[in-house]
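Deliverable D4.2, example record:
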Amino acid sequence: MTADASTRRRWLGRVLLWSCLVGAMVLAAGYIRFATRLSVTEAVTPPRTDAIVVVTGGAQRIGDAVSLLNAERGRRLLISGVNEKTGRDELAKLNPTAREALACCVDLDYRARNTIGNAIETRRWVRRHNFRSLLVVTSNYHMPRTLLELEHAMPGVRFVPHPVVTDQVDIAGWWRDWHAIRLLVPEYLKYLVAGVRSMLETDPETSRLSVIIGGRKPVSPKPGDQIGPEHDKRSRAVSPARGA
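Output generated by the structure prediction step:
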């Protein structure tokens, strides 16, 4: 190896090392900014909007969303990402104050499989009802990515965040709570990926990147009227006859 070649290799190695260090510092600074901007308190009196959407992932999220609906913060509520075997009766048992609202003003989305799917199904619901503003309910650490996906899917709609804060994760002390770090670091990386993806695509519903990232399509290919506990029970009821 010549002296010039050896010098070039050392120079490239230093450039690579410094690039990695700068990249790590940028990521760390971004993570600190992400973590410190998360809400640690819930809004006492959120503004009134056309409707409310809650992304599933915890019973408290749904309970808060129903309370907002009962407080007339929106005309209707969409619960997005409901488990296919969970019906209104199960939701009412988990949230007793929701029984009356579930009968009149709540829509259940069984198709969404992830946050991208939540945005897609919410957009369909918003267009069907011609809503122009939404109160968004999800956990505080999940709110930045949820808003990013919703704003990407519906640029003409106004979104008002209502972050749900729990005592299970010490977001305020994110730098000293190992549980919070384990929760926030992956969420921050997902947020970065969502930001890059939103710059590279125009519509999440036709996105190939969302399939690659999530490992499957963000929404179920089944029609909405073929998903849910009623359909699941009907399928089990007729299965013995099919086998006869």
